[in-house]
């Protein structure tokens, strides 16, 4: 994998590892996924599987999850949560691909409520692994450095598009201190074809640069139907009305500003000029 997009652990010293693993373990302990696990067991008809009948493994919530934190590797949760994540993800990909409902999870997912309950397993799995500012700074370090340097160029391109992975979007957001969020009309936090858009703006009145952050994504129905995106059927834009972070005078280091925890939001009520933009995309074909 290109080192720019490789979300691996770059520091396994105890002073860094201990608080990260401690935070991940606490998140696991605080989870209450009994309803989601039960729903998945019903969809799988687990009581009639050989694993249950012969080995007595009939429930997801009776086995402990473990944390894997190794230098040069992506952090992982190993155990029932990771297995549940993969199973639900396969159901969702079948649904996105437009398969008839009787061919998605054997036709046992009947409504939106079930999808919300089941996909909680995916959301919480990703939350445990990626939603840590300290860990995000490690996983996204090369990407954050690239973004910062791009905004500091004297004559940058008008648009820079980077095609990465969902792990890249998760880790960049975590590094910037963005907390867990819920996208309207979606079951996932980072759906396929999601795009994280950074815009460097110039405030002509205050004579200062600003950094604006948006998340652009497709709804569940747009992905499943494969409908053409247009002005009449636009992608959704999250954080459209978010406040913008002022950049230091003469600097384009908005990402470094946020990284250092100095993100102070300001609302701008007068004209701004759009300068270079940076888009990190999670393409549909990954």
From TrEMBL:
Gene3D superfamilies: Phosphoglycerate mutase-like (3.40.50.1240). GO terms for molecular function: phosphatase activity. Transmembrane segments: none annotated. This is Glucose-1-phosphatase. The lineage of its organism: Eukaryota, Metazoa, Ecdysozoa, Arthropoda, Hexapoda.
